[in-house]
């Protein structure tokens, strides 16, 4: 990977290659995020865009410094788009009105520690964006839980919340997951799912108010990724199906204590996670069966953390835990090689 | 008739731009005989043939100039009449740029054939037919150049279900099988009929990718005619979906029959054998016309003004062929084979050989240098494209890290180097290069290990032998001294004993006679040569047996390595 490689002469077959590049993969992932972002901005204000710009600039700067320190060709890697994907995912999972330094520290943790200290592009065992989220929610739990109220999209107070004087009472609101968890876990033993959902303004028709539409936007982007063959169906399907089955099963068992599948699927980061986070190829499983197990495991852990844990959303922790297990799962789910199959036509 | 055939899929594969139309617009032309033919002796898998001619000798067209040597060797012939001017090392059509022994013939333009005697295969034994085909130099013309006579063996069961003819031709640019099927379908089927008889195959399936409608039509027409003439309608032409590498023998067998022949096993054990259509044509030529394999159809394509297929004599320099097609000025390389699996030639002056299905002229425009290699992001595109169902990125990680054992665990040796993984890789990693590297390293280590094993065994055997010789010497010495002592003792006793009485002498004689009779009877009952051995002989026999057992014991691990 030196500069001479730019004039790499192919001495061995194959001599021609399909026009594809890491850059084009990453750019299409960013493109797929746009519908979700548009809806997000519509419901929660332009602060989302401020966070995206902030995270992108920080990520590119951090990437450039790290590449320089590691003696890697700058433009080649800076242009690959992978840092931007990490930055955007951080901006979309952090609260839009998080103070600027929260986002900056999160991005630095992702790019410097989770990515480059582990060897850079393609080498990180953990999903960098989820490392950032997990780190910041442990370090700053309250800042990471302050979300703008749905529909309150005035830009100036949001701008001030990010860069200056944080007067939050007027503009924040607990997220639906947070509100439900708090209500069910705290004092009032008579609180039921139905009661909570009916009483709080943050709940919409099927998921969280506004959130359900953001989720729909991400779903649309996910369909695009599937159509472009950037991701396979295995992970989103296994993740969503597992979350559906487990939350549905428990809601049927005791509907007063456990909230149903539509709420789980259409609030928090479930849809973003299913198509954009769980599907990170570098830190996840690669075999078809491994992908199913990996994504199902994340869904299971997500539900457990959401239902019984101390944090409102558990996707980040679930992803990191399953990242640890990914190599092992891959090892035990290797697909049969051509001619090695015991069943089918090969056996005689 | 292809409608009835049920097709099976195979995983993976890619659909590159095929570029086939350029070379199929014109019929096959005969390339002119060059002034000098450079014919490599070693043109097939197996041992290199030994030269049968010397410089200065006159040779006829079709005369054997290299004789098959050893078990898996195949003969080579003079492609034209003329004079042998040298038998020497010349540059081979291989990327390595290595040279090998070639017979250089100055052609005389008279094109004098040796006497072409058709071979009456019906009255010949299978072994005789195989020997004939070996000496006619018929090898697989799909590119692997495996001696055909070795494959014309029906395997364990003595018969096959299916004979597969491979006309898929999945590599981009190459159309030599396509035009051969279009123009010489009947002859191909005649060759196939001979193969079918030798293999006792139930049916013949001819697989052709569906991007060759003319070839399919021609073969179907010929198949109809052949089926009508024969007692059973055994020949079937099957259009298979166009997807590289559908023409890999094992992939085509899978598509046509659903059978997956495992790596390292013979397809005949699964009731199938597969030959290239060009090979079937060569068998027809050899057996029914008495012509050994001295030419083949070669596609000249790529960065040329007029791509076309030529019938080319082996030994013709590639530059002569390229000149026929008007190479474009920005050409920068010559590839033998297609863009997916072809070999980069060390120059244009290398000869066309039996493996040359295509001479592909390249340029920066046609095959642009890829952008710089990026790290693997484990996107899995390669695994999706791999027709062998491998996990190419895992093999890449381990090959790159030189953890070859792990690479083998991920079935590195099932990789057929088709290039699909590298073709789709968004990080532009030359994956196949890594596998080639890993394979050659593993082979080199195995050779080293084998050499070390042999040396170790020899050393241990020597120690053993020395020890045994020492013991034998000691035993002999002991026996000698013991015998000497006994003799001395006996002499002393003899001297001390009084002389034997005549009665005693007579008794002794009687006993001796009885013993003699008994022995004679015994030898009648047991006629083996080991029955009445002296104790010395007996000892020798058991010593030999012991040694044999020892050697067998030592040979055991070696045998295990062989399988």
Mind explaining what this structure looks like?
The complex is a heterodimer of chains A (348) and B (563). Chain A folds into 2 domains: 21-173, no CATH class; 176-333, no CATH class. Helices cover 60% and strands 1% of the residues of chain A. Chain A is built from 15 helices and 2 strands. Chain A has a two-stranded antiparallel ribbon with strand order 1-2. In chain A, helix 2 (47-70) packs parallel to helix 5 and helix 4 (82-93) runs parallel beside helix 6 (128-139). Chain B is an alpha/beta fold and 563 residues long. Among the domains of chain B are: 119-290, NADH-ubiquinone oxidoreductase 51kDa subunit (Rossmann fold, 3-Layer(aba) Sandwich), CATH 3.40.50; 373-496, no CATH class; 497-527. Chain B has helices spanning 126-135, 148-151, 176-183, 185-199, 213-229, 249-257, 277-288, 318-324, 381-385, 392-400, 404-409, 420-424, 431-496, 502-525, 535-562, and strands at residues 29-30, 36-40, 50-51, 58-59, 64-67, 76-77, 82-91, 99-107, 160-166, 201-209, 235-240, 272-276, 295-302, 308-313, 331-336, 343-344, 358-363. In chain B, the strands form 4 sheets. A 6-stranded mixed beta sheet of chain B has the order 1-14-13-17-15-16, sandwiched between helices. In chain B, a hairpin with an 8-residue loop joins strand 5 and strand 6 (76-77). In chain B, helix 3 packs across helix 5 (213-229). The chains are: A mainly alpha (348), B alpha/beta (563). Chains A and B meet through helix 1 of A and helix 6, strand 16, helix 9, helix 12 and helix 13 of B.
């Amino acid at each position: 990977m030196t500069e001479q490689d730019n004039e790499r002469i192919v001495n061995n077959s194959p001599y021609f290659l399909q026009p594809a590049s890491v850059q084009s993969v990453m750019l299409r992932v960013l493109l797929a995020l746009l519908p979700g972002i548009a809806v997000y901005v519509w419901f929660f204000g332009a602060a989302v865009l401020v966070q995206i710009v902030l995270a992108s600039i920080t990520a590119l700067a951090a990437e450039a410094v790290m590449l320089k320190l590691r003696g890697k060709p700058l433009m080649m890697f800076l242009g690959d788009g992978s840092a931007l994907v990490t930055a955007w995912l951080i901006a979309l999972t952090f609260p839009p009105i998080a103070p600027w330094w929260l986002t900056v520290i999160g991005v630095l943790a992702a790019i410097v520690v989770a990515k480059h200290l582990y060897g850079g592009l393609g080498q990180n065992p953990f999903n960098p964006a989820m490392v950032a989220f997990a780190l910041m929610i442990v370090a700053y739990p309250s800042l990471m839980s302050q979300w703008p109220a749905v529909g309150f999209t005035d830009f100036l107070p949001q701008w001030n919340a990010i860069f200056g004087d944080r007067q939050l009472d007027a503009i924040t609101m607990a997220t639906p997951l947070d509100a439900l968890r708090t209500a069910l876990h705290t004092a009032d033993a008579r609180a039921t799912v139905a009661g909570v959902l009916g009483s709080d303004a943050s709940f919409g028709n099927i998921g969280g108010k506004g959130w359900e539409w953001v989720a729909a936007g991400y779903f649309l982007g996910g369909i695009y990724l599937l159509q472009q063959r950037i991701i396979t169906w295995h992970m989103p399907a296994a993740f969503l199906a597992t979350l559906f089955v487990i939350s549905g099963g428990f809601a049927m068992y005791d509907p007063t204590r456990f909230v149903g599948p539509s709420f789980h699927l259409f609030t928090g980061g479930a849809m973003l996670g299913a198509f954009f986070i769980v599907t990170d190829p570098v830190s996840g499983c690669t075999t078809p069966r491994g992908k199913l197990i990996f994504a199902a495991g994340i869904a299971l852990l997500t539900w457990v953390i959401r239902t019984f844990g101390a944090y409102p959303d558990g996707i980040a922790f679930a992803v990191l835990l399953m990242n640890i297990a990914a190599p092992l799962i891959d090892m035990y789910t290797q697909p049969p090689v051509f001619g090695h199959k015991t069943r089918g036509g090969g056996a005689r | 008739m292809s409608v009835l055939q049920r097709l099976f899929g195979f995983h993976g594969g890619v659909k590159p731009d095929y570029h086939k139309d350029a070379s199929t617009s014109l019929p096959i032309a005969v390339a002119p005989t060059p002034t000098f033919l450079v014919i490599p002796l070693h043109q097939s898998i197996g041992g290199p043939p030994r030269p049968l001619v010397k410089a200065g000798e006159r040779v006829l067209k079709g005369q054997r100039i290299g004789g098959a040597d050893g078990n898996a060797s195949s003969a080579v012939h003079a492609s034209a009449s003329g004079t042998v001017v040298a038998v020497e090392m010349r540059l081979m059509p291989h990327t390595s740029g290595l040279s090998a022994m070639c017979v250089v013939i100055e052609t005389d333009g008279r094109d004098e054939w040796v006497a072409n005697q058709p071979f009456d295969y019906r009255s010949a034994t299978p072994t005789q037919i195989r020997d004939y085909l070996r000496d006619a130099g018929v090898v697989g013309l799909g590119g692997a150049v495996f001696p055909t006579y070795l494959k014309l063996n029906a395997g364990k069961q003595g018969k096959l279900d299916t004979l597969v003819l491979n006309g898929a031709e999945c590599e981009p640019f190459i159309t030599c099988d396509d035009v051969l099927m279009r123009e010489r379908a009947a002859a191909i089927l005649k060759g196939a009929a001979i193969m079918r008889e030798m293999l006792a195959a139930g049916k013949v399936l001819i697989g052709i990718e569906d991007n060759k409608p003319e070839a399919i039509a021609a073969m179907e027409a010929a198949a109809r005619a052949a089926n009508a003439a024969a007692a059973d309608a055994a020949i079937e032409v099957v259009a298979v979906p166009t997807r590289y590498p559908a023409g890999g023998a094992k992939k085509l067998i899978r598509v046509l029959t659903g059978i997956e022949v495992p790596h390292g096993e013979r397809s005949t054990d699964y009731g199938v054998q597969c030959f290239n259509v060009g090979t079937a044509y060569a068998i027809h030529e050899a057996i029914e016309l008495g012509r050994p394999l001295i030419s083949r159809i070669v596609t000249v394509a790529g960065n040329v003004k007029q791509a076309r297929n030529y019938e080319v004599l082996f030994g013709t320099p590639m530059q002569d062929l390229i000149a026929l097609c008007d190479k474009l000025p920005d050409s920068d390389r010559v590839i033998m084979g297609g863009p997916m699996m072809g070999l980069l030639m060390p120059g244009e002056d290398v000869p066309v050989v039996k493996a040359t299905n295509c001479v592909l002229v390249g340029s920066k425009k046609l095959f642009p240098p890829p952008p710089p290699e990026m790290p693997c992001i484990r996107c899995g595109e390669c695994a999706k494209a791999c027709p062998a169902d491998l996990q190419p990125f895992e093999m890449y990680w381990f090959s790159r890290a030189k953890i070859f054992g792990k690479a083998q665990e991920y079935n590195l040796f099932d990789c057929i180097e088709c290039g699909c993984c590298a073709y789709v890789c968004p990080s532009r990693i030359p994956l196949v290069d890594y596998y080639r590297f890993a394979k050659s390293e593993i082979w080199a280590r195995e050779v080293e290990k084998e050499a070390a094993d042999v040396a170790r065994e020899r050393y241990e055997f020597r120690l053993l032998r020395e020890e045994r010789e020492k013991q034998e010497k000691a035993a002999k010495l002991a026996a000698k001294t013991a015998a000497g002592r006994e003799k001395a003792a006996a002499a002393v006793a003899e001297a001390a004993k009084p002389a034997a009485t005549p009665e005693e002498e007579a008794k002794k004689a009687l006993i001796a006679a009885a013993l003699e009779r008994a022995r004679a009877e015994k030898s009648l009952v047991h006629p083996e040569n080991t029955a009445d051995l002296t104790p010395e002989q007996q000892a020798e026999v058991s010593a030999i047996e012991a040694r044999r057992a020892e050697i067998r014991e030592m040979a055991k691990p070696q045998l295990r390595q062989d399988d």
